[in-house]
Amino acid sequence: MGNILEGEKPILELEEKISELMEFSKENEVDLKNEIYILKRKVSQMKKKLYEDPSSWERVNMARFQERPSTLLYIENFIDGFIEFHGDRYFGDDKAIVGGIGSFEGIPVTVIGHQKGNNTKENIIRNFGMASPEGYRKALRLMKQAEKFNRPIITFIDTSGAFCGLGAEERGQGEAIARNLLEMSTLKTPIIAIIIGEGGSGGALALGVGDRVAMLENAIYSVISPEGLSSILWKDSTLASKASDVMKLTAKDLLELDVIDDIIKEALGGAHRDIDFTAKNIKTYISKELKELLALDKNDLLDKRYEKFRNMGKFEEK
Q: Which keywords label this protein (predicted)?
């Protein structure tokens, strides 16, 4: 059955009940059309409420679904002739980040993104999308190359955070992330960043300094996980659902705070329900924004990027 939301359980139970009633009606020649109609209408109402206006915690779960489309799946969908590059030229290749060059609607582009696995074996290879310093240095190498050859950059963000293992810290995890933030802020080429799943802390931000930053409808973007926040504030990680309500981590919240520029609509119930629909919407968004950004003078591009991040967020003085 795959991943399901907490609110889907009663829906599935009702759907099972409907199937049983239909089978009973057929086998015993009993007219239960009215009862079945009432239950079907109830299921329809429950689905509409759940999928059209999910809670913050339900969006967190959708963002984490293993079936959720990944960077490579979107690349396959609308980046032509993609060639993946490997290695940071310092230490090694980090499979938690993929990157390379290809063509988007005839425009040469550099594409970089976090990559999770589709199953446990792949997730171990990809380290669950949690990059080490060499992953961020590989990303930076490709971004500097994109600047040199005047290629726009598209990044896909989907990570719970940067890998915090001992080896990663020894090899300069914090410095690698900070270097990306510094360098991305002054790259003389358009950058479009899209959060497609989880956007966790500095691990996400290291690919997120863009001229346009957008989120899929059920993606999340935060400085810490709900479990982490609830452990710190209330000493209880089981209160993650409560924490997600106060964290302002959904696309809707972040658009209101001017942290992101746009929300990209995904399939009802999550991007995994209709990958082609979600990919088409991402492609349409990139196409529109890329044309506007390519029309800008490079100095104007940098000025607007600077102002964008300087003015980000809303503050209240008390």
A: ATP-binding, Cytoplasm, Fatty acid biosynthesis, Fatty acid metabolism, Ligase, Lipid biosynthesis, Lipid metabolism, Nucleotide-binding, Transferase
| Nearest in space to 207 (alpha carbons), one of 215, 216, 199, 219 | 199
Going by their DSSP bridges, the two strands 191-200 and 153-159 should be labelled as: parallel
Cβ neighbours for 161, distance < 8 A, ≥ 6 positions apart: 130, 200, 201, 202, 203, 204, 225
Distant-in-sequence, close-in-space partners of 154: CB < 8 Å, separation ≥ 6: 104, 109, 110, 111, 112, 191, 192, 193, 194, 286
Two tokens, residue 104: 């988007």
Distance in angstroms (rounded) separating the CA atoms of residues 311 and 306: 9
From residue 53, alpha-carbon distances to 32, 59, 194 in Å are: 32, 9, 21
Cα(287)–Cα(58) distance, rounded to whole angstroms?
30
Q: Give the pLDDT confidence of 98-135 residue by residue, as tens digits.
A: 999 999 999 999 999 999 998 889 999 999 999 999 99
Task: Select from 201, 108, 102, 105 the least CA-distant residue to 157.
Answer: 201
Q: Is 96 helix (H, G, I), strand (E, B) or coil?
A: coil
- What pLDDT, on a 0 to 100 scale, did the predictor assign at position 238? 85
φ/ψ bin of 242: left (φ > 0), alpha (ψ from -120 to 50), beta (otherwise): alpha
